[in-house]
């Protein structure tokens, strides 16, 4: 993007590109030491901190240091992200296996990974993960017009959790062996584990507990607001790397490198005291640039006082269609499939085709590796959701359900479609469809021992059946709710 364009749309709120990464010298040194030690004995590290503190950006930089840095390790990196949609069983772990398969097939790490042992371990882990999720993940979807949406489920052999753990650990052992055999360490990076359902957290804990040599496992987890899961993960050698707000010198570096702004010491001191998390700094510097204000302590104090929170400041300084796009898309669950996004923004399909580059240019959306989209930063989506009126929330969820139904034949993430529909029907108050689908899914998650997800679904079915006044459905939903509650210990 050229300078003029950047001036109008601002610097993206997505995790920082590694070349622009600022500060965090001690944290990077600690990660460097862990990498060096991971060849002998696998190492797990949790990068923790409140929203917007810079966890994803640090992971981006770590990936770069491990894989790309000239003269650095030049080692394989596997990455995946957990998204805010409970029930995506092992979806992030399947992402890691997929990443390894791509890595092994690419010429770059041929020397390290082109090996039958790895290929066999990939095939096995992939197969076991797929079979484990099969009872909830349909092989196909049908939308019967006017009736409920149904999934077609395969009758595959039951695979127990122990086989999943064993297959994934075997994969890591093989990867670790190959990496350390060539003097390297493979990095396995998993983001936002605070969003993971119980099964995924269990697998993460088991892996962190038995991590083989040659592997650095780094994952990010939000803390605060009861989001911390550190104790639950509970592996003995797990190191926590908590991130704090930026110091004055780091703030000045960020302003200079990413925004071309020269901040004096008084302004940096003010920001360090009042608003030192990088997300807030991004919102503040974008606002200064967009409004062409001098970056003095006085103007910064005024800016901060004028907005209730940093996400509000970020939106207040956006122009063009971006605010409307954000409002229309905020009820979706990432990853947003492109056909669904296009339908949300233009339900009648009468406008010009969705120009996805413009979404990215906006600075408030980012493209994911699979081609889908997400908000550039979750705080932006959370802000938009909170700002929706009750009526707008119902209307947008109804639109989202319709868009999924219309595009489902073109979408590959079947479980994502079903879970999204279950959620959108419920929030759209389409009680009949919501009750049926949530009850059905709740039962499937109960059998798969994901009681947290089962409870969410079943409670939705109960609420929808109450609205419908359907006594038979209500008593079935209540029976299932009791069953799940007993298992969930609630
Ligand atoms: N070290 C850094 N240098 C430059 N920019 C940064 C740095 N850390 C974070 N940022 C910027 O600050 C914003 C928030 O950072 P990031 O997304 O990494 O936070 P996070 O802790 O992952 O947030 P969340 O918990 O919501 O996922 C992003 O726009 C990012 O580009
Ligand atoms: Mg993040």
UniProtKB/TrEMBL annotation:
Q: Name one GO molecular function term.
A: ATP binding
Q: Which domain of life is it from?
A: Archaea
What keywords is this UniProt entry annotated with? ATP-binding, Nucleotide-binding
Q: Where is the AAA+ ATPase domain?
A: 41-269
> Cross-referenced InterPro entries, in alphabetical order?
AAA+_ATPase, AAA_16, P-loop_NTPase
Q: Kindly provide the name given to this protein in its UniProt entry.
A: ATP-binding protein
- Native organism is Methanoculleus caldifontis
């Amino acid at each position: 993007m050229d300078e003029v364009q950047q001036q109008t749309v601002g610097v993206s709120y997505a995790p920082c590109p590694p070349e622009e990464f600022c500060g965090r010298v001690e944290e990077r040194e600690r990660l460097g030491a862990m990498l060096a030690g991971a060849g002998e004995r696998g190492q797990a590290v949790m990068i923790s901190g409140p929203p917007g503190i810079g966890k994803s950006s640090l992971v981006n930089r770590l990936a770069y240091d491990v894989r790309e840095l000239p003269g650095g390790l030049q080692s394989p990196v596997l990455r995946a992200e957990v998204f805010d949609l409970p029930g995506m069983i092992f979806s992030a772990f399947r992402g890691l296996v997929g990443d390894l398969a791509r890595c092994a097939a690419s010429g770059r790490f041929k020397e390290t990974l082109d090996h039958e042992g790895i290929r066999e371990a990939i095939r096995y882990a992939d197969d076991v993960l797929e079979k484990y999720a099969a009872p909830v993940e349909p092989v196909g979807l049908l939308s019967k017009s006017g009736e409920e949406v149904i999934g077609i489920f395969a009758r595959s052999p039951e695979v127990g959790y122990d086989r999943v753990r064993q297959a994934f650990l075997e994969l890591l052992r093989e990867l670790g062996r190959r990496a350390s055999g060539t003097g390297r360490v493979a990095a396995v990076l998993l983001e936002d584990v605070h969003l993971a359902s119980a099964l995924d957290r269990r697998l993460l804990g088991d892996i962190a507990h038995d991590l083989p040599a040659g592997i650095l496992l780094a994952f990010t987890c939000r803390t605060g607001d009861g989001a911390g899961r550190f104790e639950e993960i509970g592996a003995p050698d797990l190191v926590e790397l908590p991130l704090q707000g930026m110091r004055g010198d780091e703030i000045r570096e960020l302003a200079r490198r990413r925004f071309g702004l020269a901040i004096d010491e008084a302004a940096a001191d003010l920001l360090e005291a009042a608003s030192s998390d990088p997300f807030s700094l991004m919102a503040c510097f974008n606002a200064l640039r967009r409004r062409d204000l001098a970056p003095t302590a006085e103007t910064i104090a005024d800016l901060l006082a004028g907005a209730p929170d940093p996400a509000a400041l970020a939106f207040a300084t956006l122009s063009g269609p971006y605010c409307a796009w954000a409002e229309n898309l905020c009820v979706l669950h990432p990853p947003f499939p492109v056909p669904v996004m296009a339908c949300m923004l233009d339900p009648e399909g009468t406008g010009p085709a969705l120009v996805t580059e413009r979404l990215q240019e906006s600075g408030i959306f980012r493209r994911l590796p699979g081609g889908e989209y997400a908000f550039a930063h979750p705080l932006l989506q959370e802000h938009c959701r909170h700002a929706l009126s009750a009526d707008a929330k119902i209307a947008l969820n109804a639109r989202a359900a319709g868009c999924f139904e219309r595009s489902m034949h073109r979408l590959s993430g079947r479980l994502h479609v079903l879970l999204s529909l279950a959620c959108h029907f419920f929030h759209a108050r389409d009680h009949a469809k919501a009750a049926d689908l949530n009850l059905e899914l709740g039962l499937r998650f109960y059998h798969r021992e994901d009681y947290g997800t089962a409870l969410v679904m079943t409670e939705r079915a109960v609420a929808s059946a109450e609205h419908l006044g359907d006594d038979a459905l209500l008593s079935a939903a209540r029976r299932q709710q009791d069953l799940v509650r007993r298992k969930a210990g609630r």
